[in-house]
Please model this.
Amino acid sequence: MISSLRGMNDILSEDYERFTYFINTATEIAGKYGFHFIETPLLEETALFKRSVGESSDIVGKEMYQFIDKGQNDVCLRPEGTAGVVRAFIQKKLDRAGGIHKFFYHGAMFRYERPQKGRLRQFHQFGVESFGVQSVYEDATMIMMVSDILGACGIGYRLQLNSLGDSNCMPPYRDSLVSFIESCEDEICEDCLRRKSTNPIRVLDCKNSTCQALYENAPKLIHNLCSTCQDDFEKLKKILQDNGIAYEINTNLVRGLDYYSKSAFEFISDNIGSQSAIAGGGRYDRLVEFLDGKATPAVGFAMGIERLMELIQMPEVKREGYYIGAMDDEAVDLVMSLAHRKRKTDKTTIDYKARNLKSHLKAADKVNARYCAVIGENELENNTVWVKDLENKTETTLKLESF
Ligand code: HAM
Model:
């Protein structure tokens, strides 16, 4: 038997219902916020992710599904959605057009990680990207949107916030962090030693407990922000407070992708185990220019759908549509025609085999039909159909024309 690859799941039955319920809910909310759907390819040039997510990140450095295609192109399955949307934004010359452009997307992402609960190699994100708005109000709007989507699905969360500064305050901070790392170089892990030269900020995110204890004393960027970044961060916190969105400051929140500046945020669930980040995002004002577009401020987020699945509170399922069955072989053709007619307006399930009433009622209940309609010998003779309303428990016999 051939099984699916490790860390790659099928989504069907009850899971699929949850999955589509989430996407529909999030899509409706994204619409209310004025976002439009965008679909980008699953396969992109590897260079796109190297230049955006960054070569020093684990995602690009260790986790890409990368290969040379038959045309000798270096390509990879997208590990995330932002880079492709930015590429499309530039390719369609929307950066040159100016104005505000807001997109949402959902689809599969691929990261060759060590699979465990909540960590897959093929997983799905719902994400949004907003281009052209510099104001920190837009950062707050992103957070409100995640909060609304989670709220609509009955999911509780903790919101963590940080500011990663901008090109004014980040470089001097990076220098002081490097000096700090050098002061404890003998005690830190191999990975952090490497990070010191590739992307020193990453050390703050190290999972090694010795490193974590050491970095408690490291300089914090939010204490070294320039006045613009500081003002924006204060404003962001105030907007969230004014709107009843609780947050925690996490000075070690650096995100796993290199393109962020200023606001960075993660939504955490305490009910799903160690892979607890259910959404993450932030501002990435330099990325469009970095990918050869015209400098455009941007901010966005993505939610990990698989991590949300078990948390989603599904609405009560209502009985819906018709189940039509024959109690006589002669009636099967008629059942088929009735179903063809009914499906123009209602969900309709049928059975191709003649069975007794009890079996049909049981089958109608199983598919959660509102009405169970059957045609037997009597009904055939009288051109009628017997119908039971499975919600109100009432029964009637109707003329075929009025069914
Ligand atoms: P990210 O934090 O790498 O951000 O991923 C967003 C979410 O995807 C995570 O919070 C998590 O729920 C889910 N996720 C990530 N990796 C896995 C995995 N291996 N298995 C299951 N779920 C996973 C981004 O991808 C950015 N593009 C978000 C963004 C959009 N920033 C700005 N715009």
Observations:
- The pocket of histidyl-adenosine monophosphate is lined by residues 80-82, 111, 113, 118-120, 123, 125, 127, 129, 256-257, 277-282, 300-302, 304, 306-307 (CB under 6 Å).
- The first strand starts at residue 36 and ends at 37.
